[in-house]
Here is the input.
Amino acid sequence: MTSNWMTIRVQLEDGGTAEMRYPPGRLMLVGPHHTFRELANAINAAFARWDLSHLHEFELGDGRRIGLPDDEFDEPEYACLDDTTLTITEVLTKGDSFTFVF
Here is the structure.
């Protein structure tokens, strides 16, 4: 029986004004039914983020964006796939990279 679980390495790339010689990172274990919203919540918890009122989005290597869809932005370049319904294993495969912006 094969496992659909995957390990995702999350690493902070930008600390705002802070220069990070060794950027902090976390390993996240993601199951086959976890959504991108659940991953966003897990990342926020793992890095002890307290300002959870900010919007967030994932940008995949192929340019697709996953986050909170907004009806006010009808242009395709602003289109965002729904992070509450799309599961991680539907989209990502081993070796894929993405950016999480909050």
Summary: The longest strand covers residues 6-11.
